[in-house]
Amino acid sequence: MPVITNIEDLRVLAEKRVPRMFYDYADSGSWTEGTYRANESDFHKIKLRQRVAVNMENRTTATQMVGIDTHMPVCIAPVGLTGMQHANGEMHAAMAAKKFGIPFTLSTMSICSIEDIAAHTQAPFWFQLYMMRDRDAMVRMIDRCKAANVSALVLTLDLQVIGQRHKDLKNGLTAPPRPTIANIINLMTKPRWCLGMAGTKRHTFGNLVGHVKDVTNMKSLASWTNEQFDPTLDWEDVAWVKKQWGGKLILKGIMDVEDAQLAVASGADAIVVSNHGGRQLDGAPSSIEALPSIVAAVGSQIEVWMDGGIRSGQDVLKAWALGAKGVMIGRAMVYGLGAMGEAGVTKALQIIHKELDVTMAFCGHTNIQNVDTNILLPGTFPTA
Known about the structure:
This protein has one domain (7-375): Alpha-Beta Barrel (TIM Barrel). The termini are far apart. The radius of gyration is 20 Å and the shape is globular. The chain has an eight-stranded parallel sheet with strand order 3-10-9-8-7-6-5-4. Helix 1 packs across helix 15 (331-340), helix 4 packs parallel to helix 16 and helix 12 (257-265) packs across helix 13. By secondary structure, the protein is α/β, with parallel strands linked by helices. The chain has 16 helices and ten strands.
């Protein structure tokens, strides 16, 4: 086993162990992938101020996200097909998050179901919802969330239509994989993954197959999904979801000040500055570039979080300094899961927390609540 020192080490190991179509699904963006790359690279431009001769004892990274205590201002983002990175992947990620003391978010397009997560973790978790044309199916899904003790709903607003992701098309992405010659040859090089999948019954979209009308297998699911993503989604639909749910509501996919203001008016509890990991509108700004202006406009009225490009604890600290009250991590979790299962997710969280904690100390702080833009070198970070 190689020595794992950072998230990149986990990514390299995941690339070796996860079938090509599922690794590429997680580790890619739309079109030219320019926004996908900028999400990560724009963090590198931001420079930190090192301080010395400061008492660095008794440090804490603890905070709250929508009233929930967290060990650090991080939660696990919703990622579709997580259960194809590693057998029962969503369950493993949820258990790692619970033990570490941060929230876990389950995707609508997960392999493990809402009920699977509820049965395998004692901690309340969050659920990410896509707006579907079939409102009866959405009502039933929201009711299932209530029954499963889901404590917050994350409504994703930026997937009314799906951005073209070239790698998925070239790989012929399906869950489970289609038995083409190319796929069979690739799977033969992933014995650990194949052995894990042979030991689980969860091979398709657990939240949808058997739960929505006329969806009984992958073929019928594909037809349903193509018809169901709702391009007519508007703020009246957000109000409808809020009324049906009645609990904490987080709106994900905000990249514009005007939309952030509309989100505040909708009565949401938090918004996530996110470009869907660079998987939707290629050519959009990075999430960290968009963050300051949104914080300046609405940060005093609503919790503003960000998602996209977080690969280290330093990235978390930079986002916090620019006003984010929390971040979501998707790919960092996926790399850990694909590399080593639940132990890999735990390792990813440990790496991020240690980097966050030590960097905060080097910047002269012992409590993350006191960190602001003063830890950043002027001229190196985006402003409102």
